[in-house]
Amino acid sequence: MKYTTHIIKNMFLNFFKNHKHKIIKSSSLIPQEDSNLLFTNAGMNQFQNVFLGKIQYPFSQVVSIQKCLRTGGKHNDLNQVGYSPYHNTFFEMLGNFSFGSYFKKEAILYAWKLLTHQNWFNIPKEKLLVTVYYKDQESYNIWKDIIKLSKENIIQVKDKNNQKYESDNFWQMNETGPCGPCTEIFFKKKECKIYDLNNKKQCIEIWNIVFIQFNKINKNNLVPLKTASVDTGMGLERIASVLQNVHSNYKIDSMIKIKNYICKMHKLDAIKNNISINIITDHIRAAVCIIGDQILPSNDNRGYILRKIIRRALLHGNKLGIKKIFFYKLVSITIKSLKDFKEQLQQKKIYIENILKQEELQFIKTLKKGLALLRCYIKKLKNNQLDSKIIFSLYDTIGFPIDLTKNICYENNIQVNEKEIKNIILEHKKNQKNKNNNCKSIHTIHTNIKSKFTGYKNYKIITIVKKIFVNNEECQKISKNQYGIIITAKTPFFAESGGQIGDTGIIYNQKSFFKVNNTQNFINSIGHIGQLQSGMIQIHDIVTTKINLKKRILIKKNHTATHLLQASLQEELQYNIEQKGSFINEKYLRFDFSYPNIINIESIFNIENKINKKIQNNLIIQNKCCTFENAKNHGYKFLKNKYYPTNVRILTISNFSKEICKGTHVNRTGEIGIFKIISCKNISFGIKRIEAKTGTYAFKQIYEKYQIIENIQNTLHTDQNTIIPKIKKLQKNFLYLQKQNNILNQKIILVEKKKFMKKMINIKNIHFLFLQVEIQDSKLLKNIIDHIKKEITSGIIILFYKKNNKYIFIASITLNIKKIITAIQIINIIKKNINGYGGGKEELAECAGKYIHNIKNIIKNIQSQIISKIS
Questions:
Q1: Same domain for 645 and 787?
Q2: Spatial contact of 431 and 504, defined as CB atoms under 8 Å apart
Q3: Do 466 and 514 lie in a common domain?
Q4: Which DSSP string corresponds to 42-54?
């Protein structure tokens, strides 16, 4: 039987379907649950809150084939990709899951049957060995007594470096969260001994069965979960390499097509250039799927990872001698090879190609700029070693790859300090991590309390205090002047969500007053974050919770206007607008969306007009709850990469806008008043950002612009009808005067050049000029200096002038005397004498100092110091 990747996937799904598992679709590469993860790195990511018991999943047994990406953090495969035959950035994870249904025995039996039974994968039993966590005796006994594996083929794996739970057989999704012991199944490519387990030439891990029993709170603290679950993962590419008997992920049917295409396109020897071709093959798959999930290259977070993957592939293309842009041309063959995603990706093919092409063109510019700078640094080397700070600076400022800098240095017999570079990178990462940690919310609390939100109809309610946190620690009370978080049974306060900021307001009773500065969600709890202004609040106190109603009303206007904006964009631009982010507060709204073309001013006016007409029509806004599936089926817009519960709130504005949204909104569009777009700009390739205001803030914006126009009219002595012709006339006059000024400057340059050159003296065959001038235009003086330097072979020119009680000095040299003295050295001499400030480069520098009474004596002193240097 021919085991194509498509057949393997179907067999896997059907096997578990036969064993009463519900088949579910792959979630996005962008994690829905865990904000600590940049990308989905395992099939269990979408079930994190199910494992923790926070969500009741509708099925107790499921099976999926999940798109995954591993490039950083705990599960970092990037450095091994291309060099190792069994590591990839993008891969598909075959997984079966149990949520409180079956556990260790059934999970192990399912895996063994699928792998070894003649009706399924039919792998010879003697070709398999397993590992278990050394404290997991139950799993060991199942393999030994039920499966009947010999003791030699069951390896007990201990913790690393005596660190608790730091074992290859204790699985953790992240630094915290669901975890537990696991048992791994290995395929022996050759006869593998126990001590050769980590020798990838002899055996390969194909399946990991994780028993989710704990929630990791911190490094040494595990809390047992109420319900034990099973999470398994088998890499499609690895099991395909076993079943297709090819000994490398890069030789399986879905990858070899891309490899062959690259070799054919560029006439490459696949064996000779194996590593680089592997890396390009892997990275085009990853790039296509990441962009397909609406991530774009950028300098931070997910966009940075994407950019890193693309540039790594481009560097290996450069290494292969591919000089022209090529990466985007691999999109078609990649989509064809990803058979199960073909239909979804084909719709975005041109979009993906355009993004990759733009990124490649941009990187070529970076390479050219970096190479030019690097050549300059190499020319200036006094010894045979390039400063590590320069190497890192090239990478940090313009994105010039460190590996490429090192390669160029080696080719030119220039030394680099590898250890020093590594330390600089580590220090930079540490600083970035500290910076990021400082930016994160300081509020990390854990509570099982459920808060009921009543703020759609109530702005003030009496309720009971359920939890209090001070310094993130649970307390029985909060005292005067302390900052903390109060959780109540009910609340009218809206917690920050869907781009809408959290409410502010007050919590009080007869004895106490707590000012709420922000409101946040903590799983099912709504936390009121602020400071106790007076009194003391304790657990079980009865309090009144009251929001800042004026602020909430303004926020509601902006939130409803955001929905009108999205619908208007869709209608005006005739493009499938996808929301990329939003921010809504009381002052303005911000909406980010995907759109690859230019939005002209006419379109902006049309969008504004559409929205203001909807406002004038005073349309009714309808809210109601329904199931998520029902909302999807009836065409309600939702964010594709966001998790939605079974029941959702839907918002309908006539037949114009339909969205899933739990935010707060006005009752009728007329309450918004007026809508005004204040800016529309690109924030990255293919992503636009519109900022707008409503109501009073929009009127203020319009009035301020009107005032500016009035001031311009008064200044130009014109009116609204003639202001544009008047400005155009002024522009024309300005260009004419600029041209005349340039002609005059050229004449001045010729006259002054002759005058200055007559005053030059000759010292040791070096022309020397130190002169006070009447011209007070630094740019013009530099131009004169350039013309003088063309007339002399070796020279030093120092010109200075007095302006606004300051002396400004300009020093310039011909580069052939830089070993004797440089312009910056001259300026440093001048600065010391005049107590001045300034700087520059070897060839040209300048400085300034305050008005000096004895300038003639100082000039003599400076001149003698410079002449002595020359002599």
A1: no
A2: no
A3: yes
A4: STTGGGHHHHTTS
Total domain count, the chain: 6
| Residue 63 burial (CB count, 10 A) | 22
**Co-location of 397 and 415 in the same domain:** yes
Residue by residue, DSSP assigns 159-174 as: -GGG-TT-STTEEESS
* Conformation bin of residue 850: beta by default, left when phi > 0, alpha when psi is -120 to 50: beta
Report the b/e string of 375-394 with b at 16+ CB within 10 A. eebeeeeeeeebebebbbeb
Which of 405, 440, 475 is the endpoint of a domain? Answer: 440
Residue 727 lies in a domain: no
Structural domain span for residue 128? 5-249
| Number of neighbours of residue 722 by Cβ within 10 angstroms | 13
Q: 577: which residues sit within 8 A by CB, 6+ positions away?
A: 566, 569, 570, 593, 594, 595
What contacts 341, CB < 8 A, 6 or more positions away? Answer: 67, 289, 292, 335
In order along the chain (871 residues), what is the average pLDDT of each group of 10 residues? 90 95 88 66 77 80 91 61 85 93 94 95 93 94 94 90 85 78 90 50 87 82 86 94 92 93 89 88 94 81 86 88 91 91 86 89 86 86 85 83 80 84 83 53 70 95 95 91 95 94 96 96 90 96 97 97 96 87 95 89 96 97 93 88 84 95 96 96 84 96 92 91 92 94 91 92 91 92 93 93 90 91 91 87 90 80 87 76
Same-domain status, 230 and 260: no
Please report, for the chain, how many H helices and E strands are present, in that order: 22, 33
